[in-house]
Amino acid sequence: MELNSIAVIERQFNTGELPVLVNCSDGKAYICKYMRSSASAFKLLNELIGAMLIEEWSILSPDFSFVNIQSEHWTNIFTPHSLSAPAFGYQQIDDVIDITPSTYIAVRPSMNSLIQLLKIALFDFWIANEDRTINNSNLLFRPNDGKLISIDYGGILNTGSYDSPMSQLTVSDSILYADIFGHISKATDSSEILDKANGLFAYYNDCIKRSLEKEQVILECIPPEWNIHKDIVSEKLEQIFEQDWTEQVWMNFIECIKEVLNDEQLKV
Question: How much is the pTM?
Fold first, then answer.
């Protein structure tokens, strides 16, 4: 979907990519990241790839759209930008809590929240998301139904290393190392946590199969204004579907969970 801005931008966030909140032609507000340089085009590409693939993993993530920001609506923002290329926007969600080192305790420990977090962690290991870590969970929490919502994919594919082979995450690169995992898992015995993680194997394989069907769709969705060669993208996407990669990811995921659980036991 492609939208247009309809009002002057009044808010810019102080996070890394300095996104802006844009009121759009569908009557909703979107948190938009935009073209600032050729390097930022690959950050936008990562957002597109992550947002499209996570849909196949039954993990909640905000709706997204390409957004054409009109020049007259940018007058309050002085960050360098290119309005000739569409921005990438996530629909703003109300009544959620941004998970931080000081707010994670709002999530009630339960088997439901644990399974949600394990699935998010597994997705990150597969997609090599280096930006969901101990100090930056990139998660929202919706208290009314206990759902975790995944956001921000600029750090996937080893932070967009399109000219290098894929490399596995370490446990400290992952959400498993964050306080929220220890908080959510504290009500569950370590052996049961490991059983639940191992029980995701069929889910993992099904998600990869469904994700594979999105590869061509992703390539077709890349805006030409981002000036990204699709062959480069195709080669990178093929890497995450290679059997060697998917098998190594699974083994690494399980070993990292064992490492975290062992560390937690040592703290007791």
Answer: 0.95
